[in-house]
Amino acid sequence: MNRPAPAPSKILADLEQYQLNWKPTSIADHTLVVPTMRPFERILTPADVGTKILRKGDSGEAVSELRIRLAGFGGVLPGTAFDENLVQAVKQFEKDVMSRTESGDVDEAFAVRLDQFAKDWPINFEKQLKCPCGKCEGYGKGQFKGEYTAKYAKSKNEAGHKYEYPGIHRSVLWASRALMYYATLDQKNKIKFNMFSSGYRCHIRNQQKGRPTTNHMGKALDMNFSYNAGKSWVFNRLSDVEAMREIAKNRLAAKMGWASPNHFSMESAAQGAKTWVHIDVRAWAEKYRADVYFCKDTIGLDGTEMVTLLARSNGKTRIDPNKSQIFNPKMPAE
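RE: above sequence
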């Protein structure tokens, strides 16, 4: 019966014990032999390989996902590079969520906490985000790409883009999670997230309600927040909506209106947003609104866990000196 090979730690222990107990022995001519002990050099076994670290200058799938999942921490845009903007987003997450010293590096602990962050703030697609028209399958029919309403036919401004995007932009969804979290941090025990009051609205839904806007065809969300009234939580108070808009400005780098390119945009109370916080990506450049950035369910939103993406990334490997190692004998230099 084959026995399993001993673990590296067992080998190491046996070697060290052998050295401690070794005594000179005599051979046939009674000469005491004391062999020259070779110095030992540490080498790593596969079990010793540490976790990966992603940092400024890196790229790849894990970095692209970080730029989506950290959109609510400073408003970082989609992309493939671990640049200074992403460094700042990572630091903000480290400080505000992890309560650890800011490094700007993504290690296993960071990945674990980011995965948990998604679980802490679940999003209900079926009940709160799908289009309620009763005609489409929840996220339009992919119609009218590159077509604009009469008002914007010449300028081709995204405000009039009639395209029914294939889902809701992942960045705005992850940013909404950040806003949920910051309500509990910046307005602790005063304000909390209640629900999404509006998600996707296709052309059919617009016709049903007599709306001409296209923001909610995948680019926008409306969020309701509740305030602590003592014995119960109540929503629809303008002062709380304004407080959350200020948080969005400070934490997400969101802007009022659509005059600031590549920032999250919000509607004001004067524009009708008196009981909700509206956030959208309408002012983002077209490349940041590519179809690949939209999703229709939690699987599409969260994707592969960040811990897994980090492990298979091209980031640098950090060696953990506390893990088991074996020794490799090396002849001393002449």
